[in-house]
Design a protein that fits this description.
10-stranded mixed sheet, single chain, 14 strands, two-stranded antiparallel ribbon
Amino acid sequence: MKEVWFSEDGDFSEIEDDGFYHFYLYKFEEVDYQVENKQLLLDFLGKLDIFPLYVMVEGHDEEEEMRQIFDHLGFSYSVDYFTDKRMYSTGGKNLTYHPPFFQIKASSMEELQLIMSETYHLATQNQFYGISFINNVQLTSRDGYSFPKLSRNKDIAALKVGHDGQGFYFYSNMNFLQKMEQVISMLPEEYVVTQINDCVLEK
């Protein structure tokens, strides 16, 4: 069995919401935690089976290259920009840019897997990487920084991949994902929760 940590604690501040239910899922590492937690993410979304989904990606300074990839693959997407700036060096010069915030539509699990195959490396490089159940999540600014913002008046959910690809944080306003028991019941059969918050469960 694949062992999972479920937690309702942690830092959920990278997406703003209005009182959503929060939880965190992490698959304990067997060989490669990044690969294994990416698979946990895909398996959990596959069990939910809600489409379309929208992959939210913070790009580096390669916005044009990312546009070309999505155009070539025929995916529908939108682009906004974070308020805060990033710096990079080229030709001996330091330049700044506003990171692009892509939202790419995935109409099926096959499309989601293809999008993630092209973009998931950004999640493991600690760029913002999330998935929403609603189109066109808006950015809001606070203290010079931008955050995706969810509205409580819609039956929606979203998630953000954790630091360095370590699990994911889930934000739910959906009736069937409002408490721990509901979340655990939605895990695929091959996964078992062996830790809840700070409590390790007996095997």
